[in-house]
Predict the 3D structure of the following.
Amino acid sequence: MRPLALYAQSRAVPAALVLLPVVVLIAWSALHSPWTPLSASLTSLAAVLVATAGLAGQDPELDRSTAIPWPLWRFGHLLLATAVATASVFLVQQLGSERFDAAFIVRDTAGMVGLAGLAATVAGARLAATAPVLWWAVAAIMPPSGSLTGRIVTWPLGSADDAATTWTAAVLFVAGTVAYSAGGGRR
């Protein structure tokens, strides 16, 4: 139990767990009326940014010198971040009369966590937030398109029952989780 507590503390998990409901509540209260794909996706993005803030430890040498099974711990970290971010958006939306599709929120949260994992692996944990933020921004400003490429690019705002948006998010989640679990944050 002690290694888990040390891992969580070195990754600022307790602080993220305290901050997460506050950030999601602020995002939801600012954006929920009316509850649109844009506002629901932005609320999920806010949750992901808080939940994935600690994708690297403070001392890379210490991380490399321990006998902890890092790939398993990093995998668990991303799964926990996905679950907690998704749950926080679900819980906060219960405060209003409008509800958003569960598949939409799960898809957006999982895809954005995958993007954060990929960015942490490629560019470092400090830049993990850039990939989900940039992809979301491009999706938000890109005009709607019925083409496959357009639906892939705008997956965070697409319909939850669209196979292209769901598969895009799933591929990003799996790729990000595998890359981050295997390699960790770039140093």
Notes: The chain has a mean pLDDT of 85. The longest helix spans residues 70-93.
